[in-house]
Design goal:
The chain is mainly beta and 454 residues long. It is built from one helix and 31 strands. It has one helix at residues 267-272, and strands at 27-36, 39-47, 58-64, 70-78, 95-99, 102-110, 117-124, 132-133, 150-153, 159-163, 169-173, 180-186, 194-203, 206-213, 220-225, 233-239, 251-255, 258-265, 281-287, 318-319, 322-323, 325-328, 344-348, 352-356, 362-370, 376-384, 390-396, 403-409, 418-427, 430-439, 446-453. Strands 1-2-3-4-21 form a five-stranded antiparallel sheet, with no helix packed on it. A five-stranded antiparallel sheet has the order 22-25-30-27-28, with no helix packed on it. A hairpin with a 3-residue loop joins strand 23 (344-348) and strand 24 (352-356).
Length: 454
C-alpha cells in the first residue's frame, strides 16, 4: 500500500472479535471462503495499490482457524495462469471448491475482442495451489456479463455453476468439474434487487442465493428456493444498501458451529483519502439463522463482526504473516485517524510468504495467544535484510500494554535468514500479543516466523 507518514491510534479495536476489515496488508475484495479439514481458506481478488478504477491481476489466499488471526498464503493464481486471457486487468471475483481430492478455481477473466467476459477453471492438488489451467480455453463464454462465478455441489453429487451481472445464469457441471451438460439457463424472472456477485449454496434442505444488491450503493441481499435451480424468492437484505460501499460481494460458510458472512467495504481506502478508488477491504460477521432458515439483517460492518473461536499456540512456529491487525503507532503531532498502513507481505521460493515494509512504529497484533500456565522464557524470530538500530518490542493486552521483552535486531549478513532471540518474562495465560517495531526510518528488516519457548 501507499506509504503514509501517519499512525494508528494506540487504542486497538476490541480483542474479542475479528478486526474488520480482516486484511490490512493489501486491498482485497470478492471474498470466497471455503472450509476444508478444519481450516477456513479465504480466496480473494486483489485491488492494486495504485488502482483508481478496477486494476486486478491476481487472486490471493488467506487462512484461519480462529476467525481473528489470518495467515497470508500469497498469490495462488494470476492472469498468467491463463496465458490466453487478457493479461493487463480483470482478475475478478473467484470461487474455489473441493471435489475428489482436487480443488477447482472458477475465475472470471477477459479475452480479446467483444464480448470479452468468460469464466475459466484451474485445478490444484492443495487449497493453497499452485493452480494450473484446466482447459486452455473458457469454460463458458464469451458473453456480456459472464463473470462472478459461484459453485455448489448438491447432496446428490450434482454440481451447479451460477454467474452473472445484471442477469443470473446457471449450468449443471459434470463430475469432472471442467465441463457441463445441458443448456446455459437464464434465471427468469430476475431476483428482486439482484445486481451481481452471487453466492449459491444449500443448507438444511433449503437453497440460498446471496448477492450484491442493486448498484449503487450496494448492500447484500438474498433469495431462497426449495430447488437448486429455483424458482427463487427474494427474502430481503442481509446488509442494507450503504453509501460507504458502491460495490459488494458476499461469501457465506458454516464453521465450528457458527455461520459467517463475508463481504467488503471501502473503509481503508477512505482512511487514506477522501477520494473514491476501487481499493476495497474484506470483512466478516457471525450470524445465526432464524428458525425458519432465513438470515437476519446484520446492519453494516461497523456493527457486525465475529468473535475469535480458539486460540493461537505461541510455542509452535507462527508465520509472521499471521495477523489480526497491523497499523502504525500514533505520534503526538499526528492528527486523529482510524487506520494507517502497517506492514505488508512478499513471497519468494525460499521463504514463501514473509513480512516486509517493517518501519518504525509499525506493529502487528496477534489475537488470543495462549501462553499457558507456565511462563514463556524466550522469544525467537527469523530475520533477514536487517539494518542496525532496530528492535521488536513485545507488548501484551494492548499496543501500549505491558512489555514482556525487547529483541534488539542485529544487522544480518546479506539477505539470508537468521534466527535471533531474547529473554521474555510475564508471558502467561491467554493474551493479545503486539509486535511493535522500533528503529530508524525506512524499511528495517524482514520477518519470516517467530515462536516462544519455556
Amino acid at each position: 500500500m501507499v506509504a503514509m507518514a501517519v499512525a494508528c491510534l494506540s487504542g486497538a479495536p476490541s480483542t474479542v472479535r475479528a478486526e474488520n476489515p480482516i486484511i490490512q496488508t493489501r486491498f482485497t475484495a470478492d471474498p470466497a471462503p471455503m472450509v476444508h479439514d478444519g481450516v477456513v481458506y479465504l480466496y480473494t481478488s486483489h485491488d492494486e495499490d495504485d488502482a483508481d478504477g478496477f486494476r486486478m491481476l491476481d487472486w490471493r489466499l488467506y487462512s484461519s482457524t480462529d476467525m481473528a488471526n489470518w495467515t497470508d498464503r500469497g498469490v495462488v493464481a494470476s492472469l498468467k495462469t491463463f496465458p490466453w486471457a487478457v493479461q493487463t486487468n480483470d482478475a475478478w471475483a473467484p470461487q474455489v471448491i473441493a471435489r475428489g481430492g482436487k480443488f477447482y478455481l472458477y475465475a472470471p477473466i477477459s479475452i480479446a475482442g467483444s464480448p470479452k467476459n468468460v469464466i475459466a477453471v484451474a485445478v490444484a492438488d492443495h487449497p493453497a495451489g499452485p493452480f494450473r489451467d484446466a482447459l486452455g480455453k473458457p469454460l463458458v463464454g464469451p458473453a456480456d456479463g459472464y463473470f462472478d462465478p459461484t459453485v455448489w455441489i448438491d447432496k446428490d453429487g450434482q454440481a451447479y455453476l451460477y454467474w452473472g451481472n445484471p442477469d443470473l445464469w446457471y449450468v449443471k457441471l459434470n463430475k469432472d468439474m471442467t465441463s457441463y451438460s445441458g443448456p446455459i439457463t437464464k434465471v427468469q424472472p430476475r431476483i428482486l434487487d439482484y445486481q451481481e456477485g452471487p453466492w449459491f449454496y444449500g443448507r438444511s434442505g433449503r437453497y440460498y442465493m446471496a448477492f450484491a444488491s442493486t448498484c449503487c450503493s450496494e448492500g447484500i441481499g438474498y433469495a431462497m428456493s426449495d430447488s437448486p435451480t429455483g424458482p427463487w424468492v427474494y427474502i430481503g437484505p442481509i446488509m442494507e444498501h450503504d453509501a460507504r460501499a458502491t460495490g459488494n460481494h458476499p461469501g457465506i460458510i458454516d464453521y465450528k458451529g457458527s455461520s459467517y458472512v463475508f463481504g467488503f467495504s471501502y473503509e481503508h481506502n477512505f482512511a487514506l483519502t477522501p477520494i473514491h478508488h476501487e481499493r476495497r477491504s474484506v470483512s466478516v460477521a457471525r450470524f445465526q439463522y432464524n428458525a425458519d432458515g432465513t438470515i437476519p439483517n446484520l446492519k453494516w460492518w461497523d456493527v457486525a463482526s465475529a468473535p475469535q473461536v480458539g486460540t493461537l499456540d505461541p510455542y509452535a512456529r507462527v508465520e509472521a504473516e499471521t495477523i489480526a491487525w497491523t497499523s502504525r503507532l500514533k505520534r503526538d503531532r499526528d492528527r486523529d485517524y482510524s487506520w494507517a498502513p502497517g506492514v505488508t507481505t512478499d513471497q519468494d521460493d525460499r521463504a514463501g510468504v514473509y513480512v516486509t515494509r517493517i518501519t518504525d512504529r509499525s506493529y502487528i497484533k496477534v489475537a488470543g495467544v495462549d501462553f499457558g500456565k507456565a511462563e514463556a522464557r524466550r522469544f525467537m524470530a527469523s530475520i533477514a535484510n536487517a539494518r542496525p538500530n532496530s528492535s521488536i518490542e513485545l507488548h501484551v493486552d494492548r499496543v501500549d500494554g505491558p512489555v514482556i521483552g525487547v529483541m534488539k535486531v542485529a544487522a544480518t549478513r546479506g539477505s539470508g535468514w537468521e534466527a535471533q532471540s531474547t529473554a521474555v518474562s510475564g508471558a502467561i495465560g491467554i493474551r493479545d500479543l503486539y509486535l511493535v517495531f522500533r528503529g530508524d526510518g525506512g524499511s528495517m528488516f524482514d520477518l519470516d516466523y517467530w515462536k516462544f519457548s519455556r
